[in-house]
Amino acid sequence: MNTDAGPPPVTTAYAPDLFAERTVLITGGTSGIGLGVARAFKTLGARVTATGATEAERQRAADDPANDGIAFAVLDVRNAADIERLVGTLDGLDVLVNAAGVIRRDAEHDPDVFADVIDINLTGTMRVSAAAKTKLAERRGAVVNVASMLTFFGGPRVPAYSASKGGIGQLTKSLAAAWAGDGIRVNAVAPGWIATPLTEALQQDEERSRPILSRTPMGRWGTPEEVAGGVLFLASPAARFVTGAILAIDGGYLVV
Which residue numbers are catalytic? Predict the structure, then answer.
């Protein structure tokens, strides 16, 4: 047996047509975790629209053959009119994944930068969710928000990011309670240290990555696909009685 091949793709754990004929919208879906989620839904048969904040991000994702079959769009989640316009182009909506977010290490101690990060990460999630509510209710759909390990504790270099992700946790619980009567489930995933372009500098710096890996019981970086596995579960019929949950996908980082 080849022990170097690694684990099988996360999507092989699910029926290949699990999301056939379902429509999925993913904000922040042109790179990193969001793109991993978009690819996973596409693999399982969904019609996927994924957004990026700029035309350059959209074009880069659209040009990658690995993303064939995903529709990419530009969306600034600070712009309510653009959100309404994009949601209006969808013929229906079964799943919304709010993955759009930014981090501005150290600069977030400036109140203006702090406010902008909150506006994108937290208020942006609320804007998109509110705009999508009617279509989600029509199909008894699901929302999956991307929280973080910083939903649970602070980050001295990233007060705005930490505050926004703490807010995502409470927003998830609040909307779950408010929207259950409309048949909409609202949950979140809380990724740990995931190998994405955002963390590439940390991955390459042994001195900085060593304490991260030593605290992670599984002893490695996670992958966007592994986060996608949790999103797929929370969006699937297998989680039909799950709402208001925050699923840690962190290799055990939070339990140490």
Answer: 161
